[in-house]
Amino acid sequence: MIGNVVTDTARQARRPGLRTALVVGIAGVLGAGLMAGPADAASTLGASAAQTGRYFGAAVAAHHLDEPAYVATLDREFNSVTPENEMKWDATEPVRGSFRYAAADQIVAHARGQGMLVRGHTLVWHSQLPSWVRGLSTAADVRTAMTGHINALMSHWRGQIHSWNVVNEAFQDTGARRNTVFQSRIGDDYIELAFRTARAADPDARLCYNDYYIDDANHAKTRAVFDLVRDFKTRGVPIDCVGLQSHFNATSPVPDNYRQTIERFAALGVDVQITELEIPGSGAAQADDYRKVVNACMAVARCTGITVFGIPDHYSWRPYATPLLFDSEYNKKPAYEAVLSALNAGGPGPVPARS
Ligand code: G3I
Question: How much is the mean pLDDT over the chain?
Fold first, then answer.
């Protein structure tokens, strides 16, 4: 049934005027497609999320797509993918004006072939940025490079990406702007320019601001992102969603006010997506924390989807932390069962799931 999702979503995405309803459309298709209600507990992550009109995704790497166990787990469990590195600037435009899409295309083709949604990650970020961008010295040149990069990537995948991380990690933990080449050359307005450019490049994609350490409403960085979203909404600058990366660990645990943080973002008029979820561990404590995160998302209608930052532990960017839902033999960990039951018990998403 998930096979219908991309077909219908892609069809919706090509039709004008449906941008603001895209995730609602996804939710409707997911819910209608499965024809399952809470009484019919689904047995995979994607199917259980779809019951409430949400997606459950994984970050994937193109170079693992030739591994049968990896692909079997991806295809069975998930209904959304995020390329972990393949859409970043160093991968897609290593030389100015010379674009490489093959690795990311491989992920997008696989996902669409399986009826999965695709999240785009990421257009404007200070890391994994080619040296030619960092070396640009004038505002005009950085502006041209940034808008050119956004236009090229969003045009290449127009109608195929349900949500794009337009700007990633623009703030320091203090709430001050991070001093990137974009910030130092263009100034504060670069985020607005990026979002306006993105809206024009693919009017059907959801446009997200994505960051880590914005999971606690009381942190200075979270407050800075609240302010950004409020300002954009007040002035009519396009923004549709905020991505909470949610890289949790012992020094940055799941905050007690996580659900309230999601609610506060949603109250500003944007969707919330949990975009890079990982929690170290292997037993009951990890499972409890994963459950807490999923319950928080399920409690807020505008929390529209969750992405874990990899599939088996050994392919995590922090493999020693074993932060994912599958061990390195692709066995389901206790956290997997906790997530599945929390998804099955979840409250309605952006539109009530049809049953
Ligand atoms: O590009 C080279 C490649 O040519 C070489 O063959 C390979 C050999 O190991 O290394 C490749 O680069 C690595 C790249 O991942 C692709 O595998 C980099 O050294 C490595 O630093 C890079 O790490 C990525 C990291 O972002 C960079 O900051 C991780 O895989 C990726 O999981 C991580 O993801 C970020 C999110 O995008 C944003 N949020 C934070 C998160 C963690 O930093």
Answer: 90
